[in-house]
Amino acid sequence: MDMNAAKTGNVVSRVGKAPVALPAKVSVAVTGKLVTVKGPLGTLERIFEGVTFEQKDGNLLVHPTESTRTGKAMHGLGRNLVRNMVQGVTVGYKRELDVIGVGFRVEAVGQALKFSIGFSHPVLFPLPAAVTCKIEKLTHLELSSIDKELLGQVAANIRGLRKPEPYKGKGIRYTAEKVRQKAGKSGGKGAKKK
Questions:
Q1: How far is it, in rounded angstroms, from Cα 42 to Cα 191?
Q2: Domain segments of the chain: what residues?
Q3: Using CB atoms within 10 A of its CB, is residue 194 exposed (0-12), middle (13-18) or buried (19+)?
Q4: Which positions ≥6 away from 153 have C-beta within 8 Å?
Q5: So what CATH class is 93-174?
């Protein structure tokens, strides 16, 4: 980082400088630190620290409130969080997971998922109201939501119920995830010495 720029107060994030395009059906309301984004798929709200917002020519501009390293970080973070909110209320987000293993499966029970994943009992996982799930073939599930952060956390929690093990690959994994396989023990105790 250029120390002269920091002294003169010109510390600006390259990511934060980029404007966030607002589609025609999206409206943004800023009340103090609270930002509300409304779109065709729903409404999202978030409190932001260290940044201010300005609407100009169909774009949303983000400005840092302080010229420090933390201010620069909050500038870029704030801009990306708002962009995620705008994208969420217009097209939404999806995460896909696969349940892999003999006899492993998942089924919907109301607003919850029931997993049979090799334990002595089925595991019930309650889904938040903002997350919807579509199940295909009892081994593939597709989660969708307008909130990217919530969706990612729910997908990670589901994967954590039975992480894929490295020998046979059994467990719950993201659809595009590559699980590194380990070689099992082959050859028993080895050849006998003469």
A1: 67
A2: 3-90, 93-174
A3: exposed
A4: none
A5: alpha beta
**Range in 34-38, 67-71, 116-120 the model is least confident about:** 67-71
Give the model's pLDDT for residue 10.
57
Q: Is the pLDDT of residue 189 over 60?
A: no
**The one-letter amino acid at 4:** N
Nearest to 78 by CA among 54, 104, 48, 111: 48
Measured from the Cβ of residue 9, the count of other Cβ atoms closer than 10 Å reads 11
Closest by Cα among 101, 150, 161, 160 to 127: 150
Burial track 123-140 (b if 16+ CB lie within 10 A, e otherwise): eeeebeeebebeeeeeee
Nearest to 69 by CA among 10, 15, 2, 11: 11
pLDDT at 154 over 80: yes
The phi-psi region of residue 110 (left if phi > 0; otherwise alpha if psi is between -120 and 50; otherwise beta) is left
Question: Where residue 192 falls among pLDDT bands split at 50, 70, 90?
Answer: low
CA-CA distance, 22 to 38, in Å (whole number)? 11
**123-126 vs 112-116, strand pairing mode:** antiparallel
One fold for both 3-90 and 93-174? Answer: yes
Report domain 3-90's class.
alpha beta
Spatial distance between the Cα atoms of 80 and 32, rounded to a whole number of angstroms: 19
Q: How far apart are CA 172 and CA 76, in angstroms?
A: 33
